[in-house]
Amino acid sequence: MNFESLRPTVNAASPGGQHLPLARSDDSQASAPILFFDGDCAFCTRSVRWCLRRDRRGVLRVAPIAGLTYAALSIHERPIEPDSALLWDGAAFHQRGEMAVRVLSLLGLPMSGAGLLIGLTPRFVRDAAYEWIAHRRHQLSSGRESCLIPEPGWAARLLP
Asked: Among 31, 69, 114, 118, which is most buried by a count of CB atoms within 10 Å?
């Protein structure tokens, strides 16, 4: 991945209109949602791979929470030390159960239908289920490799 190809873009939600490196010079999806995840967690990496494989429209971009993209965000609502995956939709961050519902809705059918059904459950139930999995994510990975090896067509969707 060529980090020099990053170009600054202005995010309307950022205070003072600060420039954020959220798009590549060849990226036509400057406002596409970004899923931030624990890049050191094999379960998280497998979950991201699962999402990217089902995102046939290619609307979702991903970046590790410990990466350059997340660190460069100058948005005051940005969780400083997130303990779970986050979805940035261009206006706000979404965490836990709400993040999962929104990611599923971005994937298109049939996953968006599953997201709709899950979204009907009370938020505290979704968040509790998410927290239960999040606290066991390293056990669920079974010592597998956490490296996200891109498949063809993913390069523009993987941010540093």
From this structure: 69
Interior/surface letters 125-159, b for 16+ CB within 10 angstroms, e for the rest: ebbeebeeebeebbeebeeeebebeeeeebebbbb
What confidence tens digit (pLDDT) does each residue in 64-123 have? 998 999 888 877 667 766 777 899 988 888 989 999 999 999 998 998 999 999 999 999
What's the predicted TM-score (pTM) here? 0.75
Q: Tell whether 156 is covered by a domain.
A: no
Total domains present in the chain = 1
Are the CB atoms for 9 and 30 separated by under 8 Å? yes
Whole domain around residue 130: which residue ranges?
3-23+32-151
